[in-house]
Design brief:
The chain has about 325 residues and is mostly helical. It has one domain. It is built from 11 helices and no strands. The longest helix has about 45 residues.
Length: about 325
């Protein structure tokens, strides 16, 4: 299913503009290119407004009836979905962004009730997280196919190294922020966002100058969001939405950092695994079920790798017979 949808997406993008790669980023586009291509403008409107707006309505419709009883902050899930999806459209590509929007919506309507009913440390939450990680691994591996066959050892090594690098950065940032006033926390967030966004855009798109400008902009956004939410009390809609957007922004930056490092070392499949290990670890609670998402994730990796090897063998056999 994911492969068929990916093929349709590639065909659709090629028909809109043959110069675009299937998973193009908006930083690749120019003003004249957008103004002259009506179909491209429509695609961007669908990706940036219509799709997230429809998924926002879905999250609101599903979660609102149970929100007060289960302690679910609907605005937080909506803000997280928008921030992660929009930022990933720049750092990872528009195609990946659309997949992220859908997966994060599924995350909201499945994991949020599981947490509300059974608790964050429950097996129900870990099963929900496992399902999300497995689905994301399959879908994103179709969006980011590995162009050449790497050894399993290299792919696993790249995924783990990128995960550990981002984990060290994450823990270091948390340690630096501990006990600091809101202004100091905001400055650390701004600097971290600026550096990592520069690295991701430079490594993935070779657009270091645009990464510098975009990193500054997102650094200021991260700082402003931190100042407005750190230490704030109350549960009004806008404040909770802001906190969700801050969470989604940070998660997207860390995810993209792990992805870009692993992609450089061992291709798309390793990159997806590295990013999803970050996601799984961020949601892990110290219980007997803690490693269920990671076990399922690597089991999915084995299945994906076997399938890609089978396709490569079939293609080689067809070539030899012809």
């Amino acid at each position: 299913m994911a492969l068929r949808l990916t093929s349709q997406w590639r065909t659709h993008v090629h028909q809109i503009d043959p110069r675009l790669t299937p998973n193009f980023s908006v930083i690749d586009l120019t003003g004249p290119q957008i103004r002259r291509n009506r179909d491209l403008r429509q695609l961007l409107i669908q990706a940036y407004l219509i799709c997230p707006a429809m998924l926002t309505l879905l999250i609101w419709a599903v979660l609102t009836p149970f929100a007060s009883r289960l302690g679910i902050n609907v605005a937080w899930w909506i803000g997280s979905m928008w921030a992660f999806g929009l930022l990933s459209s720049v750092l990872l590509g528009v195609g990946a962004s659309l997949v992220s929007f859908v997966i994060l919506t599924f995350d909201a309507v499945v994991q949020a009730p599981a947490i509300g009913v059974f608790g964050h440390a429950s097996i129900a939450n870990q099963i929900a997280l496992t399902a999300i990680c497995v689905w994301a691994a399959v879908a994103l591996s179709a969006v980011f196919p590995t162009r050449r066959l790497y050894s399993a050892l290299r792919e696993i090594f790249a995924a783990i190294v990128s995960f550990l690098a981002v984990l060290i950065i994450w823990v270091t940032v948390l340690a630096l922020m501990a006990g600091r006033p809101p202004l100091g926390i905001a400055a650390i967030m701004a600097a971290t966002a600026f550096i990592l966004i520069n690295v991701v855009i430079g490594l993935r798109w070779q657009r270091w100058s645009r990464g510098f400008v975009f990193g500054q902009l997102l650094g200021l956004v991260a700082a402003a969001g931190t100042i407005s939410s750190v230490g704030a009390t109350g549960e009004n809609f806008m404040l909770v939405l802001q906190k969700g957007m801050n969470s989604g922004l940070g998660a997207a930056i860390l995810w993209a950092a792990a992805f870009s490092l692993a992609e450089k070392m061992a291709g798309g499949r390793a990159a997806v695994m590295g990013g999803l290990m970050v996601t799984a670890f961020q949601n892990i609670v110290p219980t007997v079920w803690s490693f269920l998402p990671l076990v399922a994730l690597w089991t999915t990796y084995v299945m994906l790798r076997r399938r890609s090897l089978a396709r490569a063998r079939s293609a080689a056999a067809a070539l030899a017979s012809s």
